Amino acid sequence: MDTKDILVGIQIAVLIFFGIFRWYMAGRREGKKGIM
Protein backbone atom coordinates (compact mmCIF):
# COMPACT_ATOMS: atom_id res chain seq x y z
CA MET A 1 0.00 0.00 0.00
CA ASP A 2 1.39 3.33 -1.09
CA THR A 3 0.45 6.59 0.60
CA LYS A 4 -0.98 7.66 -2.78
CA ASP A 5 -3.30 4.64 -2.85
CA ILE A 6 -4.58 5.45 0.64
CA LEU A 7 -5.24 9.09 -0.31
CA VAL A 8 -7.08 8.06 -3.48
CA GLY A 9 -9.15 5.59 -1.48
CA ILE A 10 -10.09 8.29 1.02
CA GLN A 11 -11.07 10.67 -1.79
CA ILE A 12 -13.30 8.05 -3.40
CA ALA A 13 -14.89 7.18 -0.04
CA VAL A 14 -15.61 10.86 0.64
CA LEU A 15 -17.16 11.33 -2.82
CA ILE A 16 -19.38 8.27 -2.36
CA PHE A 17 -20.38 9.39 1.15
CA PHE A 18 -21.36 12.89 -0.02
CA GLY A 19 -23.24 11.45 -3.00
CA ILE A 20 -25.31 9.18 -0.75
CA PHE A 21 -25.79 11.96 1.82
CA ARG A 22 -27.07 14.45 -0.80
CA TRP A 23 -29.36 11.80 -2.32
CA TYR A 24 -30.71 10.97 1.15
CA MET A 25 -31.35 14.62 2.05
CA ALA A 26 -33.03 15.28 -1.32
CA GLY A 27 -35.22 12.21 -0.78
CA ARG A 28 -36.26 13.39 2.70
CA ARG A 29 -37.10 16.85 1.33
CA GLU A 30 -39.34 15.32 -1.32
CA GLY A 31 -41.25 13.26 1.22
CA LYS A 32 -39.43 9.99 0.44
CA LYS A 33 -40.87 9.98 -3.08
CA GLY A 34 -38.79 7.83 -5.40
CA ILE A 35 -36.78 6.04 -2.70
CA MET A 36 -37.05 2.23 -2.90
Number of domains: 1
- If you average the pLDDT, what whole number results? 85
Q: What sequence of helices (H) and strands (E) makes up the elements?
A: H
What is the approximate shape?
rod-shaped
Approximate strand percentage: under 5%
Number of DSSP E strands:
0
Helix content: over 70%
Sequence stretches where pLDDT stays below 50 over 5 or more residues: none
Give the distance, in angstroms, between the N- and C-terminal Cα atoms.
37 Å
Structural Rg: 14 Å
Number of continuous helical runs: 1
Q: What profile does the largest beta sheet have?
A: none
The secondary-structure class comes to: mainly alpha
Could you give the topology of this structure?
Blueprint: H1 3-29
In short:
Helices cover 75% and strands 0% of the residues. The protein is mostly helical and 36 residues long. The protein has one domain (1-29).
Note down, in words, how this protein is organized.
The chain has 36 residues and is mainly α. It has one domain (1-29). Helices cover 75% and strands 0% of the residues. The protein is built from 1 helix and no strands. The protein is rod-shaped. It starts with a helix and ends in a 7-residue tail after the last helix.
Structure characteristics:
36 residues; mainly alpha; 75% helix
